[in-house]
Each structure stands twice: as C-alpha cells, then as structure tokens.
C-alpha cells in the first residue's frame, strides 16, 4: 500500500500525479480558449513532447510518476465508480433525463481508457451514435459540446492537494474546472492505490454546492513543521481557507495556517505563480506581488473547534516563526522590470522543488534561472514554449502524492 504523506514543499519528492493532455488540447480553439481559461491555443503535439520531457526529468531523479488518464482508466474498472462518474458528469439536469440516459449508456460501453479520455477531453454532439435523437440533439450542431473538455486538468496541483497525512479535493472557482474535481473524487474513493488508504479527506469530497468557499491547490504551500501557507487569490477565498484550516486542526494535521492576501488578477492567479519554496530557508518570489505590506494572518485552533486569527506584522516574520529559522532568503524574479514581468508571466517563480536546492523550471526563464544558479539552487530545465501558454509552470503541473517532511 502506497504511503500518502506530503510533509513539505522541499523534502525529497517520491511520487507525483501528472496529466498528459491530448484530446482536451485538440479541442482548444481561438473561439473557445478564453472560456476554457487559456490565453491561446497550443500545439498539441509539441505540448505533449514537452510534457514527456517533464515526466522523464522527474523519473530520472527517482520520482514515481503516475498519470491521470491511467488512474482514471483503472478507477473505471470499478462498476460503482463508473456509474457514479457518469451520473455525476452527465446528469439528468444537464441533458434532460431521456438524453442523459442514452448518452450514459453509450459511454458506459466504451473501453475504459477511451471513456477516461472522454471524461477529460469532452464529447461533442457529432460523436454520439445517430440513433440517439431528441429535442436536445435537434437544437445543437455537431461541434457543440455535450460535455466540455477539461484542458486545465494539465494543472494537477489545483484540483486536489495533499497536506501532511490527508488530501483536500478542491471545489474549483471557475465553471470550466469544476468537473475536474469529480474525476479526482472517483480516483481517491475507488482506485486500488487509494481506496484502502489511511489518509484524511479534509475538504471537498461531498457533492454539494460549495458556493463561495472555493479553494485551489496552487494557493496552498505545505511549508512544513506543521505549518501551511495559503494565498487568498482570485480562485481561493477566505471562506475556503477557513473550512480547510478548521479541518486540518480537527484532524491534528497542522498547528497553524498562514493566510496571505493576494491581488485578484490573472497574472497572479495562484500563490505559486508568484512564490514557491525552494530550500529550507529560501523562497522564490515575484516582488511586485509578494510585498512587505501584503495583509497576512496566522490562524490557529481556538481550543473549541473554531479558529483564532491574529494579524502578522508581515509574511516574512510569519514564515520565520513557523519554520523556526532566523532569516528567510528571497530570490526575486530576474532581469530588469520588463524582463521580470515577462518571466513571471512565463512562470519563472513557479518551480517544482525535488529536494532542497534542486528545482525543475522552464528553460526560457534565463534571467531568473541565472539568479537561482548564483544562489546555489540547481535548476533542471524543461522546455515550456507550448506548455507555458496555459499559464502554469512545473509546480502547477504536478500534484505531489508522497514527499518527505523537513
């Protein structure tokens, strides 16, 4: 039985979940990419090649790489999981009972790997068998989606995040990503790697409307020693932070949560696009956003099942206290003001730490990578000319399942 424990952002990475996108990227077009939260369309083949290089870089460093499509296919071998996923992703209320029933029956007969591809890549009206007809089909064209693609599954970090001895299965903020959560719920409930696992589900495993209490893993940094740092961004709300913090404390998995207020705009969509942890006392930051005067609170248990909230003087002070270190070192985005803004947009600060002082990042961010090198941080470079167009770097594209503490 695999041990599921993520004790830090920088301890030895042992196992990780990635998603190599294909069908969902094929369906990104200039007319739908904005709705699907992409700024541009990607070259599918090139993005796939770049993702393979990323996965192989991790494998060469001794990290076990699990792929979402494989896990989803294997989960669908369980009839209960397949029926639950089909009824959740293609509900009667979405398509109408008669049409939904026909579509579910057709999908249920597909080979499980093909069904997994559809659950992430989408289904169009033109793909269903000709005998399935009703008013819904009569009022749609062949290229309309019955089930939209999920290209953002590429960013496995967001949909679920492992924190110490448990996982948060995150209620996503944007409609374009909300169905991703159900794929992960099914995997963690029914896949043999997880179904008998001894881990906590902190938040997000219920089929309810979470309303404003949204949370995404790109905002959650497991900084270690019982502390968790969470950014309140355009995707993660104070309400979501409160639910997760309460659950972490109830299960005795954390002793404090540091909540940092971020600007609510796309260029710093998540905390990890402007800040990552790369060595015991060292963080990479984009200083335009991670400012001294940013509001920051420390949440601790109040002893009665609730939260005690205290405003911290600043983020660095809160980090030093939490990590028991004298001084936090910051490596800022490289180059002049223009170069730094470009490199932050291309995820120069969004690196994946494999062990203290060794990170994976996009090779194109030459100014920042040079600063890492000078600070004694080893960068394992990967190409990101296509992958980077999705506005996510190596950390965004990886969900650690097992990682040592510090």
TrEMBL record:
It comes from the Bacteria. Pathway: Amino-acid degradation; L-arginine degradation via ADI pathway; carbamoyl phosphate from L-arginine: step 1/2. Its main location: cytoplasm. The keyword Transferase does not apply. Gene3D superfamilies: Arginine deiminase (1.10.3930.10), L-arginine/glycine Amidinotransferase, Chain A (3.75.10.10). GO terms for cellular component: cytoplasm. GO terms for molecular function: arginine deiminase activity. InterPro entries: Arg_deiminase. It is found in: Cytoplasm. Keywords: Arginine metabolism, Cytoplasm, Hydrolase. Its EC number is 3.5.3.6. Pfam families: ADI. The keyword Hydrolase applies. Belongs to the arginine deiminase family. This is Arginine deiminase. It comes from Mangrovibacter phragmitis. The lineage of its organism: Bacteria, Pseudomonadati, Pseudomonadota, Gammaproteobacteria, Enterobacterales. The gene is arcA.
């Amino acid at each position: 039985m695999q041990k599921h424990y993520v004790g830090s952002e920088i301890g030895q990475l042992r196992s990780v979940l990635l998603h190599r996108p294909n069908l969902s990227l094929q369906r990104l077009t200039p007319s739908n990419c904005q709705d699907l939260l992409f700024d541009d369309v990607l070259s599918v083949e090139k993005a796939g090649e770049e993702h393979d290089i990323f996965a192989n870089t991790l494998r060469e460093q001794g990290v076990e790489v699990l792929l979402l499509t494989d896990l989803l296919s294997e989960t669908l071998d369980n009839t209960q999981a397949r029926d639950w996923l089909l009824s959740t992703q293609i509900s009667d209320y979405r398509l109408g009972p008669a049409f939904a029933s026909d579509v579910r029956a057709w999908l249920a007969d597909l080979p499980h790997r093909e069904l997994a591809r559809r659950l992430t890549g989408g289904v169009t009206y033109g793909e269903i068998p000709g005998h399935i007809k009703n008013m819904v089909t009569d009022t749609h064209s062949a290229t309309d989606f019955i089930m939209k693609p999920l290209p953002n599954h590429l960013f496995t970090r967001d949909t679920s995040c492992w924190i110490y001895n448990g996982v948060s299965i995150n209620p996503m903020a944007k409609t374009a990503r909300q169905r991703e959560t159900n794929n992960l719920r099914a995997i963690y409930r029914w896949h043999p790697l997880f179904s008998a696992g001894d881990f906590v589900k902190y938040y997000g495993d219920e089929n309810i409307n979470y309303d404003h209490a949204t949370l995404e893993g790109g905002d959650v940094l497991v900084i270690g020693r019982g502390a968790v740092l969470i950014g309140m961004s355009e995707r993660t709300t104070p309400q979501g932070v409160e639910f997760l913090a309460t659950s972490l404390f109830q299960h005795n998995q954390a002793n404090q949560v540091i909540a940092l207020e971020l600007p609510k705009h796309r260029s710093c969509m998540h905390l990890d696009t402007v800040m990552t942890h790369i060595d015991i006392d060292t963080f990479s930051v984009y200083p335009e956003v991670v400012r001294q005067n940013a509001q920051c609170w420390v949440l601790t248990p109040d002893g009665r099942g609730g939260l005690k909230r205290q405003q911290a003087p600043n983020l660095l002070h809160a980090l030093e206290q939490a990590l028991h270190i004298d001084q936090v070192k910051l490596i800022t985005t490289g180059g002049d003001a223009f170069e730094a803004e470009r490199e932050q947009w291309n995820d120069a600060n969004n690196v994946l730490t494999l062990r203290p002082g060794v990170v994976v990042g996009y090779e194109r961010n030459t100014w920042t990578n040079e600063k890492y090198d000078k600070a004694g941080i080893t960068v394992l470079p990967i190409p990101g000319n296509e992958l980077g167009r999705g506005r996510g770097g190596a950390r965004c594209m990886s969900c650690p399942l097992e990682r040592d503490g510090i």
